[in-house]
Design a protein that fits this description.
This protein is mainly α. The chain folds into four domains: about 25-175, Frizzled cysteine-rich domain (Orthogonal Bundle), CATH 1.10.2000.10; about 220-435 and about 450-485, Rhopdopsin 7-helix transmembrane proteins (Up-down Bundle), CATH 1.20.1070.10; about 490-580, no CATH class; about 585-670, no CATH class. Helices cover about 55% and strands about 5% of the residues. The protein has helices at about 1-20, 50-60, 60-65, 75-80, 95-115, 220-250, 260-280, 280-285, 305-335, 345-350, 355-375, 395-425, 455-475, 475-490, 490-510, 520-540, 545-560, 575-580, 585-600, 605-610, 640-650, 655-660, 665-670, and strands at about 25, 40, 95, 135-140, 195-200, 205-210, 285-290, 295-300, 380, 385-390, 430-435, 445-450. Strands 1-2 form a two-stranded antiparallel ribbon. Strands 3-4 form a two-stranded parallel ribbon. A two-stranded antiparallel ribbon has the order 5-6. α15 packs parallel to α17 (about 545-560). The longest helix is centred in the middle third of the chain and has 31 residues, at about 220-250. Keywords: Developmental protein, Disulfide bond, G-protein coupled receptor, Glycoprotein, Membrane, Receptor, Signal, Transducer, Transmembrane, Transmembrane helix, Wnt signaling pathway.
Length: about 675
């Protein structure tokens, strides 16, 4: 009896164990914090039962991580020693074999250079070949740069390679911990508040926390919710009134006025989408739990959240359908208002082509909506919590909202203009049946004659008024296209390109600064980085702060790399302590150089006219006759021009400084004053 009872209990315990989910715990290893997930479980993939034991073994790889043989090395090691945990998955989620092989191909030559083999605990054959439902694994963020060549070995400054039981010698290891050298940049560190974003490996993008206030505060969000609540209710009420009127007596909406009913129906259902968002709440509609991190994030792919997808379908599809029906309405109006002698389109004639009109008005918006759902570009807006397209991507907004609406607008406006011209003509093409007595047998004939039709004329007036009222707010869409073009013309792409070049140079300095003397590092800065900084100051020094801030941050990282400073070193004292000219000072120096050349008449005549203008609307900042006249600039963009800025800076320096014999003397005197 006892053996049977033991077998029964053992089988029960085994069955129960299969149902128990894996217990997850927060990652306590400093090296593995902020790598893309924040929970793990023990034992890990190498048999450690405690995170403390795993951290001790992981710290032996510190020098290899700092060496930078692979940008994925840190992620790979953490996925082995602190694998990702999901309570619904019974096994820890470690690295894929492709990730292991990528890191091994880059770092194994470095180990062999110092006489160490690849650790057996990191044998790539132990890891799943691909990520699937049977064996889940992580592919990693991908390599940032090409494989680095092996650096020369310098006596007494060899990087001590860890991971195979060797302990670092503090006397020979200049920077044993990642204190004075920059660690690999976190994927979301480019944002102003990186702690409010999480990196999603599946999409390769940073997602914002659901309750984070990045661009807008809580008061702004509350006001926006009240604002679109009022307008969506007014839209719903007025549109519903039109729909009910049609349902009561559909004969009032004959062609060419019938598209008004379909437009009203589209606006009614679109406002229902806003109502769903209001009733469902911001968090339940626009946010969802990301399984990788277990954090509530703002939706980036509409299919991740069914409620978000429903709101998108209601607002986008019916919004585009309303534009399509406006185009169809203007097309019908164009046909009705034909010139005399051309074919007359009455209600019955248009009714025969109604199937084609419905196919265009409903089919094109449906194709747009399906395309967006397949591409998974539906995202949520931080301000309103609405799910739409282009809330987090200006390019997507341009391609799928602005350009389609502009196409509807331009084509519809062409038909509207044609209808207006025909309606304003002296002989409109309205045909009526006139009863004329017959010459025999007392019968009368109904002969179509060309004369004004009062009902059709009234219909044309209503269509004209409604088309114009719809056209005016649609023109505002063109402003968004102008903003996008202005962004392209502001050389933002080129600024990012130059910044990427600077950061690549910084990456090189980071890899050699532990064995090169300081004077050589400073020479590298002025040879490889300062020319780009100076170039950017000359071209974009006086432009928008959103552009210059990118260049400032790149210079900050470069200076910290040269002087082996941690990333959190105060920027305020960075340049004054080490004698490096900051980006803002470079801009001022260039502006003063321009004003100095103008003061000594060393500029071309057409440029000197801007400094010697006697415009009465200009103003002078001090009473000296030697001061330049500041031109009156109406736009803020004109006030960011180098000439305007140089005049402002020149007019505030002391008069005695203006008489300096050389620009270097003048600049030094300005710094002293």
């Amino acid at each position: 009896m006892e053996p049977l009872l033991f077998i029964f209990l053992a089988s029960f315990a085994t069955g129960y164990e299969l149902e128990v989910y894996r217990a997850c715990e927060p990652i306590k290893i400093d090296t593995c914090k902020g790598i893309g997930y924040n929970v793990t479980s023990m034992p890990n993939l190498v048999g450690h039962d405690l995170q403390k034991d795993a951290e001790m073994q992981l710290n032996t790889f510190t020098a290899l991580i700092q060496y930078g043989c692979s940008s994925q090395l840190q992620f790979f090691l953490c996925s082995v020693y602190a694998p990702m945990c999901n309570e619904k998955v019974s096994t820890p989620i470690g690295p894929c074999r492709s990730l292991c092989e990528s890191v091994k191909n880059r770092c194994q030559p470095v180990l062999q250079e110092f006489g160490f083999p690849w650790p057996s605990a990191l044998d790539c054959s132990k890891f799943p070949p691909e990520n699937n439902l049977q064996h889940m694994c992580m592919d990693g963020p991908g390599e940032d740069t090409a494989p680095l060549p092996l650096s020369p070995v310098y006596p007494g400054r060899n990087p001590v390679v860890m991971g195979v039981g060797v302990v670092a010698n503090p006397k020979k290891d200049i920077y044993p911990k990642n204190t004075f050298t920059e660690s690999p940049e976190k994927p979301c560190s480019k944002y102003r508040n990186p702690d409010k974003f999480v990196y999603i490996n599946r999409t390769g993008r940073c997602a914002q926390h659901c309750d984070a206030d990045i661009l807008f505060g809580k008061e702004d969000k509350a006001f926006a919710e009240v604002w679109f609540t009022v307008w969506s209710f007014l839209c719903f009420s007025s549109s519903l009134f039109t729909v009910v009127t049609y349902l009561i007596d559909g004969s009032k909406f004959r062609y060419p006025e019938r598209p008004l009913f379909f437009m009203a129906m589209c606006y009614t259902l679109a406002s229902v989408g806003y109502g769903i968002r209001l009733l469902g709440g911001r968090s339940d509609i626009s946010c969802h739990i990301e399984p990788q991190h277990g954090i509530n994030i703002l939706t980036q792919e509409g299919l991740d959240q069914s409620n978000c997808a429903i709101v998108f379908l209601m607002t986008y599809f019916f919004g585009m359908a309303s534009c399509a029906w406006w185009l169809v309405m203007n097309f019908i109006w164009h046909l009705v208002e034909r010139k005399p002698g051309q074919k007359t389109y009455t209600h019955n004639v248009i009714q025969r082509y109604s199937s084609g009109l419905h196919l265009v008005a409903w089919g094109i918006p449906a194709a747009q909506t399906i395309t967006l759902l397949v591409m998974m570009v539906v995202d949520a807006d931080e301000l309103t919590g609405m799910c739409f397209v282009g809330n987090q991507s200006s390019d997507t907004l341009l391609r799928f909202v602005i350009i389609p609406e502009l196409i509807y607008l331009v084509i519809g406006a062409g038909f509207m203009a044609s209808g207006l011209l025909s309606a304003c003509s002296s002989t409109p093409n309205h045909t009526a049946l006139v009863q004329v007595p017959a010459p025999q047998r007392g019968h009368s004939l109904h002969i179509p004659v060309q004369q004004p039709d009062t009902e059709t004329a009234q219909s044309s007036k209503r269509l004209c008024i409604f088309s114009v009222l719809f056209f005016v707010p649609m023109v505002e869409v063109a402003k968004f296209l102008g903003v996008h073009i202005d962004s392209c013309l502001s050389f933002a792409t080129h600024v990012s390109y130059v910044r990427a070049i600077i950061l690549r140079q910084v990456s090189i300095i980071n890899r050699v600064n532990y064995f090169l003397p300081l004077d050589i590092l400073v020479t590298l800065y002025y040879s490889f980085i300062y020319p780009y900084i100076s170039y950017c100051g000359s071209v974009w020094g006086n432009t928008y702060p959103s552009v210059t801030n990118k260049l400032k941050s790149a210079q900050n990282r470069a200076v910290k790399a040269v002087f082996r400073l941690p990333r959190l070193y105060p920027t305020k004292d960075l340049y004054s302590n080490f004698g490096i000219i900051p980006f803002e000072q470079i801009i001022k120096k260039l502006n003063l150089s321009l004003a100095y050349s103008a003061y000594h008449k060393n500029l071309p005549p057409h440029l000197l006219t801007y400094f010697n203008s006697n415009n009465s609307e200009g103003h002078c900042l001090r009473s000296s006759n030697r001061s330049f006249i500041v031109p009156r600039c109406i736009s803020s963009s004109a006030q960011r021009s180098p000439i305007y800025k140089s005049i402002i800076q020149w007019n505030v320096i002391p008069s005695s400084v203006e008489l300096s014999t050389s620009f270097r003397t003048l600049y030094n005197n300005v710094l002293k004053s």
